[in-house]
């Protein structure tokens, strides 16, 4: 584990951000597949994180307000289950939802915010530390799809650790990837850990589709911003006027989000030329929606993997939006 930088007396930052070369090679890999795609983790540069926050305030985006209402309604029970250990949020973003839980457990000693978006992570943790000065706030900039080691701090070695994974972010992972994520999380949270996950239920496409393709076009700006990021960080020459965004519900149980080429065209990333046909799609995200039974099956797959590797299944509480 790298050593911490103190961004304030109460906020320690551990920077495990993947190097720029990984971004380049993953982007080029995705662009050279028959179905072009980017990993959704690349959507969250500083501007992407701001646009995601704007999406969370939209009328169409029912997920944030619904999940916050569930957390408010059950905060005392959840606080009781968490007890006095450390809370670790995966994909912490603006660290807003955690405030509902922190208000219900003022005795909690440690909060670890883990996110790939470094500047946003730092700023959110500084804001949080200003509101909760007694809280030991640790920011870890890392990719949660990879195995992660926690810093060897005494209070993290001994105490009960609970993971928090809200926002239906687990829906961005394909079911096999979700099981792999849950296994990594369970390893990190052993031996007495727990995990609180926010999962979105299947529902009518009349509710789902506007949530991912809003009238103001912020979802579109959020997806297309990845092209701006590639132009800036990887010397790309995407012309944003030559692409549009689309999102639709696939009845197999997921929202699919794409950038669509408006013309036959070539784009360069550094020296590499990538050809697009008119109407060719580039996938930016899936958002899987679960039934309660489907999510239980996923948890069962995790339990059997953990048992075969001799690990103790952690307790898991699921909030459904
Ligand atoms: C859908 S947002 C959810 C934010 C917040 N937890 C909420 O519920 O509103 C996903 C968050 O996960 C982060 N993220 C996405 N992929 C990640 C990855 N592979 N590793 C770490 N963080 C990631 C993003 O930067 C973003 O802050």
Explain what this protein looks like in three dimensions.
The protein has 321 residues and is an alpha/beta fold. The chain has two domains: 5-18 and 62-202 and 290-320, 3-Layer(aba) Sandwich (Rossmann fold); 20-55 and 205-288, no CATH class. The protein contains ten helices and 14 strands. The chain has helices at 20-31, 46-56, 62-82, 97-104, 118-131, 154-158, 175-189, 205-211, 218-233, 292-308, and strands at residues 5-8, 11-15, 36-37, 86-90, 110-115, 136-141, 161-165, 194-199, 243-250, 254-261, 265-269, 272-276, 281-288, 315-320. The strands form three sheets. It has an eight-stranded mixed beta sheet, with helices on both faces. It has a four-stranded mixed beta sheet with strand order 3-13-10-9. Strands 11-12 form a two-stranded antiparallel ribbon. Strand 9 and strand 10 (254-261) form a beta hairpin. Helix 2 packs antiparallel against helix 9 (218-233) and helix 7 (175-189) crosses helix 10 (292-308). The mean pLDDT is 93. Bound molecules: S-adenosylmethionine. S-adenosylmethionine binds at residues 41, 44, 49, 52, 56, 64, 91-93, 97, 115-117, 143-145, 166-167, 169. S-adenosylmethionine is lined by residues 41, 44, 49, 52, 56, 64, 91-93, 97, 115-117, 143-145, 166-167, 169.
